[in-house]
Design a protein that fits this description.
Oligomer: single chain
Number of strands: 5
Number of helices: 2
Largest sheet: 3 strands, antiparallel
Structural class: alpha+beta
Strand order of the largest sheet: 1-2-3
Distance between the termini: 13 Å
Shape: elongated
Radius of gyration: 16 Å
Order of helices and strands: EEEHEEH
């Protein structure tokens, strides 16, 4: 499973993805009293996912310096990042 590629931006109460192929493709509407804060968090999601993956790649413990060990064998920060990645990718 993968997310829509491109730059995710907040446009009022909508989250749009802009890429070289379009000027703004709406991917969701945000409602409720906290819609602005929620919209900013949603728009940052692809960047946060990429940062988590990079952090796990650099700081995750490995078996024989190759295979990434399971989340239960990692430090708390790496374990939380691995769990967040799994959630974002529909594996939890």
């Amino acid at each position: 499973m993968s997310h829509t590629p491109g730059e995710w931006i907040v446009n009022g109460d909508q989250i749009e993805v802009k890429s070289e192929h379009n000027d703004g493709y709406r991917i969701c509407d945000v409602f409720g009293p906290d819609y602005k804060a929620n919209g900013l968090l949603i728009a940052a999601s692809p960047d946060l996912l990429a940062a988590c993956k990079l952090m796990v790649e650099w700081h995750g413990k490995r078996e024989n310096n190759e295979i990434l060990m399971s989340p239960s064998e990692q430090e708390a920060e790496v374990r939380k990042a691995m769990e967040a990645i799994a959630k974002a990718e529909g594996r939890s």
